[in-house]
Design a protein that fits this description.
921 residues, alpha+beta, ten-stranded mixed sheet, 16 helices, 46 strands, 29% strand, globular, binds alpha-L-rhamnopyranose
Length: 921
């Protein structure tokens, strides 16, 4: 004490101490690295979103650090209304205070009501299990969108050309406007009936395509928000926007058009904050001018006709002479159905250069881009004024090597470009996309190479989260095909196919594939948006349309295995991202669908209605019991039960005790009714198909004592088909899971590596670069299946991807602490694979599992992200297991070590682990 007193009496020492204290604080504030930290702050699944309309947005962050067992024990969030405030001593708008919790994802903002168009800056600090705190994270931001329809000052405008109907030239809209002070920041809010492309001072606004995206337009239309600060200048500015038919009034399924209306319209509101603190708003209104531009026609199915001679040079720049343009009409469409864009925008991704330029036996000049992709071709070519270049798009060449488009049905997928003449002209389409690998070129004989013509993949901007690979190149190609099937069919909505005259949000396909999708990419926002449309388009009586957004007749609803997307998709989003709010958001829709089935069933059996059944299952006749057709009533009953189960699970999570009880009773009745109607006392199921057994087993429809024998029957059925699968859209996703669960892992692997039809690798052996709609899109004799329905880019059968991640590599979330908060890592080697590995970027960070067979040894590397725990299950253990060379029983970071049969189990926290042991085959 005396010593300290003396110390403080010394002025010099006092100063030094002060300096040290300051230094410590400054270093901490600057983010001095400690052995753990926090970063990757996201809000509503987005990094620094500039427009959200969720009133209590959810925040996620990742803990970082290489040490094992990193666990969050507490956090503090601070939210400011000005960025600078984080570094001053200014009080935050909201501070959570120190919250003792290990929750680091989906943490709802819980401060004062958030204001329209206001930016919020936030940071977080976390504490670990040693009680150490991280430094404050870097400051991230979110910004609210327009929260009140009355804040839309802009007016809907439209052109007034007589020929402005579906398929007519695209209208352009323009306006010059003046800013008389330097701009601090400016946001542009924009949407349309139809699709739009906007330009400010000659520069494209944003890099999104097909905006405002496809939603249930009668109920919800998205608007986009762009930070256009850097595109504006002091003084005069110009804005120009082009509109295309898009989904709004363009041709769709069955040659229908004008689904949502006959007139296209535009709504634009620019809000500027000047450096001097004043504000200005510029809006679409009756003073805008309109003209028809070079896009002669555009259609998703048919392509685009573009006459470059009609280009209006400089039309979106200041000073353009628009005297000849017409005045727009103001229209009175409503604005209270406008919502901020929730999912990811469609963007341009991979670029492909010509792999080969070939001449077909029929004499066509065709470019092979080497990948069946969805997007378009961009070229830089010269031509004579008035000459037309035509591009045709196809997925495949036929047996003789000729360009094949019959499977596109009526979709033309054609680009016609009329040259303006002179120097090289650069063009890429605007309001259309094609599904293709091959492009036939007509009207141009010059050189076609990587400098003159390329292809771009265009799809919803979902970050890739997963990778999967093995020692078998064919399986790697299968994984590649699954991922490309996902890219091509996630173009704003989950479609069945991207090329023929269909391209709709088929619900059955979506539910079959969605769990796989959650592994390959971050699809939380994508499905979150689509599920809102599902609920919006769901009928009052709970019936779910076949396609979402719906464009079919009102009778096209309530098919089993399709409508169940209402329960299955939200459930899978919940599993992958721990997203309880999606269950909350979708609960009425889920319940509505189950109640619909209740009302349409008799004595707890649902067997009425129109169903697609086990769509596109194997249809051979080479096995005694004929084709692998499963009774549709039987299928309906299993999905009825499954949806009910998911509703019960959701009710439990949301604390809806009464519902949980009520639907649990219902579920018992559904299972008894199933057993009475479709199962003999010895466990034989009415349809002896693989799908019948798979569904009954996967959804626990059979009494416990009959399950194993049913699984053995399933195996015998597969044997009878010479070890081939025969399942369709509904049975396929669960086939290998059921085999694995009931001790037939070897058979699951045999199906996976089977190369003959029907199998997953049969298309791969036939050169597929995406997943096919049918097991035999190209038949064994080399001819094509029925062109009426033969897509070569249809993701449903890609549902095996989920089994590859969860069983082959063994990365699973626990179902109680979902979103990979707790996980089960349970790799299962099999077949002739010597290695397999998968990585998954979860909301907590990277999980990875890699195994390798080295002689008699199995080596397994596992990475568990911070703030999570894992139960590890090592299979086929003979003898001692070593972790980093040490007997597992001596490693302090491994807990609850026990051996069950020949599986070695243990629990771990975050970190990297390396196991090695003798593997018994
Ligand atoms: C076809 C497609 C689609 C399927 C429906 C039932 O249009 O194959 O994938 O869901 O039929």
């Amino acid at each position: 004490m005396i010593y300290i007193k003396t110390l403080f009496r010394n002025r010099y020492l006092k100063g030094l101490l002060f300096l040290i204290i300051v230094q410590v604080f400054v270093l901490r504030a600057q983010g001095e690295p400690t052995n753990f930290g926090v970063d990757h702050l996201i809000c509503e699944y987005k990094m620094n979103p500039i427009s959200i309309d969720v009133l209590k947005p959810r925040l996620c962050w990742k803990l970082t650090g290489a040490k094992r067992n990193i666990r969050q024990t507490a956090y503090e969030i601070q939210v400011f209304t000005e960025k600078e405030s984080a570094n001053t001593l200014k009080a935050p708008l909201w501070s959570s205070g120190k919250i003792f919790s290990d929750q680091s994802v989906q943490v709802p903002y819980n401060g004062p009501a958030l204001k329209s168009k206001q930016a919020y800056f936030w940071r977080v600090m976390v504490w670990n299990s040693e009680g150490e705190s991280s430094t404050w994270s870097k400051v991230n931001c979110w910004r609210m969108g327009i929260l009140n329809a009355r804040e839309w000052k802009a007016k809907w405008i439209q052109s007034n050309f007589k020929n402005d109907t579906t398929g007519s030239p695209s209208s352009q809209f323009r306006k010059d406007f003046k800013l008389n002070r330097p701009v601090k920041e400016a946001y542009l809010y924009i949407t349309s009936h139809g699709v739009y492309e906007g330009w400010l001072n000659g520069e494209r606004i944003g890099n999104d395509y097909f905006t405002p995206g496809w939603t249930s337009y009668n109920n919800r239309i998205q608007y986009q928000t762009y930070d256009v600060t850097s595109q504006l200048k002091n003084g005069l500015n110009a804005i120009g926007v082009t509109l295309g038919d898009g989904w709004y009034r363009g041709y769709t399924y069955d040659k229908k058009k004008d689904i949502y209306g006959k007139e296209l319209a535009l709504l634009v509101q620019l809000e500027v904050e000047y450096k001097d603190g004043t504000r200005g708003t510029f809006i679409s209104d009756g003073t805008w001018k309109t003209s028809q531009g070079p896009i002669h026609s555009s259609s998703f199915f048919d392509g685009e006709v573009y006459d470059a001679r009609m280009e209006k040079i400089g039309w979106s720049t200041v000073g353009y002479n628009d005297k000849a343009w017409k005045q727009v009409l103001v229209n009175s469409s409503i604005k209270d159905n406008l919502v901020s864009m929730a999912g990811p925008p469609v963007r341009k991704h991979e670029k492909f250069v010509p792999l080969k330029v070939l001449t077909t036996p029929q004499g066509d000049r065709v470019i092979d881009f080497g990948q069946n992709l969805v997007g378009w071709v961009k070229f830089k070519l010269a031509g004579k004024s008035g000459d037309t270049l035509k591009l045709y798009h196809a997925e495949v060449l036929d047996q003789k090597g000729n360009f094949y488009t019959q499977n596109l049905r009526s979709a033309k997928q054609e680009i016609s470009y009329v040259f303006k003449g002179g120097a090289e002209e650069t063009y890429e389409p605007h309001f259309t996309f094609q599904g293709f690998r091959y492009v036939k070129v007509k009207g141009y004989t010059g050189v076609l190479d990587s400098t003159s013509i390329v292809a771009y993949a265009i799809y919803s901007d979902m970050p890739q989260t997963g990778t999967f690979s093995t020692s078998n190149p064919l399986i790697n190609q299968l994984q590649h095909n699954i991922v490309w099937g996902q890219k091509g069919n996630f173009v704003d909505v989950p479609t069945d196919c991207p090329q023929r005259d269909e391209r709709m949000g088929w619900t059955g396909d979506a539910q079959a594939f969605c769990r796989t999708a959650t592994f390959n990419m971050d699809v939380a926002g994508f499905y979150g948006k689509w599920l809102k449309d599902l609920a919006a388009d769901q009928h009052k009586d709970g019936a779910v349309p076949y396609v979402i957004p719906t464009v079919q007749d009102s009778s096209a609803v309530a098919a089993t295995g399709w409508a169940d997307a209402a329960t299955i998709v939200p459930w899978n989003v919940y599993l992958a991202y721990g997203d309880k709010r999606i269950l909350e958001q979708q609960y009425p829709s889920m319940k509505g669908w189950v109640d619909y089935m209740v009302r349409h069933s008799k004595d707890y059996l649902w067997s009425t209605g129109t169903h697609f059944g086990d769509w596109l299952s194997y249809a051979g006749t080479d096995y005694e019991d004929g084709a692998a057709v499963t009774d549709k009533g039987l299928i309906a009953q299993t999905f009825f039960a499954h949806s009910t189960q998911l509703l019960i699970n959701s009710a439990e999570i949301l604390g809806k005790v009464e519902d949980e009880r009520k639907y649990s009773i219902l579920l018992n009745h559904l299972k008894s009714a199933f057993q009475k109607e479709y199962v003999t006392p010895s466990g034989r199921i009415a349809s002896g198909t693989q799908t019948a057994y798979v569904l009954a087993l996967n959804f626990d429809m059979l009494p416990e004592e009959l399950r194993q024998s049913a699984a053995d029957r399933l195996r015998r059925n597969i044997d009878n088909y010479d070890e081939h699968l025969t399942t369709g859209f509904l049975g396929t996703p669960y086939l290998n899971h059921v085999l694995t669960r009931f001790g037939h892992l070897d058979m699951a692997y045999r199906l996976l590596i089977k190369e003959t039809y029907p199998s997953w690798l049969y298309p791969v052996k036939n050169g597929a670069t995406t997943i096919w709609e049918r097991w035999d899109g190209i038949k064994v004799d080399g001819s094509f299946e029925d062109p009426g329905m033969n897509s070569f880019n249809h993701y449903a059968y890609g549902a095996i991807g989920d089994w590859m991640y969860r069983v082959v590599a063994g990365i699973n979330t626990s179902e109680t602490a979902t979103g990979f908060k707790e996980m089960v890592i349970s790799p299962k080697p099999g077949a002739n694979l010597t290695t397999a590995q998968a990585e998954l970027e979860t909301l907590y960070g990277k999980v990875s599992s890699k195994w390798m067979i080295d002689g008699k040894k199995l080596k397994i590397d596992i990475v568990i992200p911070p703030n999570t725990t894992a139960k590890i299950e090592l299979p086929n253990v003979a003898g001692k297991v070593l972790e980093n060379g040490n007997d597992i029983y001596s490693v302090k970071d491994l807990h609850e070590i026990k051996k069950v049969g020949d599986t070695q189990q243990m629990s771990v926290g975050s970190g990297n682990y390396h196991f090695e042991y003798t593997f018994h085959f």
